[in-house]
Design a protein that fits this description.
alpha/beta; 2 domains; 41% helix; 521 residues; Rossmann fold
């Protein structure tokens, strides 16, 4: 599903109206009806329920007036609180204001600070709130009286349905510079907006509903390459079916090069992640001194000991043996728990340009490239890098705050400059691709901020690559399935105390939920 900026959405609206003759009033009516359906979902029977509709002076407010009319017709007691003078309302919004007034229904202007006492009184008796104050054109910080109204809405504790976007969130960036509505549900129109799927805006959205407002569907699909919200349907279509004749050799072979003294867990989690993602055969290569430990920990994964240093890390001389092992592998995953030992760093730097199979590079595999990140552009096979924000800042030599505040731009620049798929981990993980397309992951939760979670993800992506998925799709699907398994684990066990092993355990269930009945070809 495409994700758009506010400007792109306005252009789609314009095209629908001017080129296809769909009146703006029709789009507004459809938008309002979509919001009404969610309000009905929240309240159940709306007859006799009290709903406060807060409307601004733009088209977002016009949508809110449509909502008010239909809720009134359904028997709700509706109060429209207008954050503008009636004479300031224009266009299609003015038409809907006139309809509301001709129905004999009042509007309650909120123009001054002293009006807030009436706002709070309305909120005390309300069963639900509709936020139609600001739309996708909003930027900056809300000023009075809107700022006070937003704070009163948040303090009320009532369920809030936001129209298109929670008031106070910037549609293009997700930035929040002042008071912002914390919605229970957000009904966005036609396509998700970037600000709804990026933090901090995402935390204000609640449950996101994407509503059809009758814009021709082919218009919504144009714009490739673009930005996309990963959906279950997309992942289902990408996952390769397993034919009835499948065997372990036909389901992909992954070589995981990982681990060092004191960091065996990262290696185990990555290897098991590949196996849980469906790879037929997984081999873990690590310093020889660790092989006995790994063989006991891993019963479903083959282990190979490689030359090591006195410090228990992989030696530079392991390069030739790794390349030999790769002759019998479809994918390499490298990095988890490798260490930053100078010999190991040299090994990584010499190995990557020699690869002939796709690779996933994580953790110390990435740290080995700090100061020489352009080495990535010398990799001649499909590659996925999976840094978190600190690792990305280290690779780029930029301040961490810049990476955090410009996540989307940073990931897209990295993918374009390095020629690899750049997966930037975090809330709403980003998967930026060299062709200019970017995938935004909606799954996952704060409970997954635990040691080893990223190692599991590395293995999952490698396992999907080994089954024949392209690097962009393996990274995007891997992020989605990894986050979905984390969400299942959080529901079952709670977020606090959730472990990487819990994610591993539920990966097959996450995949099964997505696949439904497409397992057998």
């Amino acid at each position: 599903m495409r994700v758009v900026t506010g400007g792109q959405m306005r252009e789609l609206d314009r095209t629908a109206m001017e080129d296809y003759g769909i009146p703006g009033l029709v789009l507004m009516e459809n938008a309002g009806l979509a919001v009404v359906r969610v309000v009905q979902q929240v309240l159940g029977e709306v007859a006799g329920k009290r709903v406060a509709v807060f409307a601004g002076k733009g088209n977002n407010g016009g949508d809110g007036l449509v909502v008010a009319r239909h809720l009134f017709n359904a028997g709700a007691e509706v109060k429209v609180l207008l954050l503008a003078k009636p004479e300031e309302i224009s266009g299609d919004a003015a038409v809907n204001l006139a309809i509301w007034q001709k129905m004999g229904q009042p509007v309650y202007p909120v123009a001054r600070g002293e009006d807030l006492s009436a706002v709070r009184l309305f909120l005390v008796g309300a069963h639900a709130v509709v936020d139609a104050i600001f739309g996708t054109g909003f930027k900056g910080a809300a000023r009075e009286p809107a700022a006070g109204v937003i704070e009163a809405i948040n303090a009320s504790g009532k369920p809030v349905v936001a129209v298109d976007i929670p008031s106070g969130v910037e549609a293009d960036t997700g930035q929040v510079h002042g008071p912002c509505v914390r919605a229970t549900h957000t009904v966005t129109f036609a396509l998700p907006k970037l600000g709804l799927v990026q933090e901090p805006g995402r935390s204000h959205v609640g449950e996101l509903h994407v509503a059809d407002i009758s814009i021709p569907s082919f218009l919504l699909e144009e714009g490739t390459p673009g930005r996309y919200l990963i959906t279950e349907k997309m992942v289902r279509e990408w996952l390769p079916p397993r034919p009835a004749w499948a065997h372990k050799g036909s389901c992909g072979r992954v070589l995981v090069v990982a681990g060092s003294r004191g960091m065996t867990g990262a290696a185990c989690l990555a290897a098991l992640g590949a196996a849980r993602a469906g790879a037929g055969l997984v081999t873990l290569a690590m310093p020889a001194e660790l092989q006995d430990v790994m063989a006991v920990k891993l019963t479903e994964v083959m282990t190979v000991g490689l030359p090591g240093t006195r410090e228990g890390t992989l030696a530079r001389s392991a390069r030739s043996e790794i390349l030999a092992l790769l002759e019998r592998a479809d994918v390499l995953a490298i990095g988890p728990g490798l260490s930053r030992h100078l010999e190991t760093v040299a090994l990584v730097r010499e190995l990557l340009p020699a690869l002939r199979v796709p690779c996933v590079i994580d953790a110390d595999g990435l740290n080995a490239l700090a100061g020489d990140v352009q080495l990535l552009s010398r990799i001649s096979v499909p590659a996925v890098v999976t840094p978190h924000e600190v690792e990305m800042a280290r690779l780029l030599g930029r301040p961490l705050e810049e990476v955090r505040s410009r996540r989307l731009a940073v990931a897209e620049e990295a993918a374009a400059n390095w020629g690899v798929v750049a997966l930037l981990k975090g809330a709403a993980t980003l998967v930026a691709c060299p062709d200019g397309s970017t995938y935004i992951n909606p799954t996952g939760n704060p409970g997954m901020a635990t040691g080893g979670s990223g190692d599991v993800l590395t293995g999952v992506i490698a396992g999907l690559l080994a089954q024949g998925m392209s690097a962009p799709r393996a990274a995007a699907a891997g992020a989605y399935l990894h986050g979905l398994a984390g969400d299942m684990a959080a529901r079952e066990k709670g977020m606090r105390g959730l472990l990487a092993g819990d994610i591993l355990e539920l990966l097959p269930s996450a995949i099964a939920q997505v696949e439904c009945n497409v397992m057998i070809a």
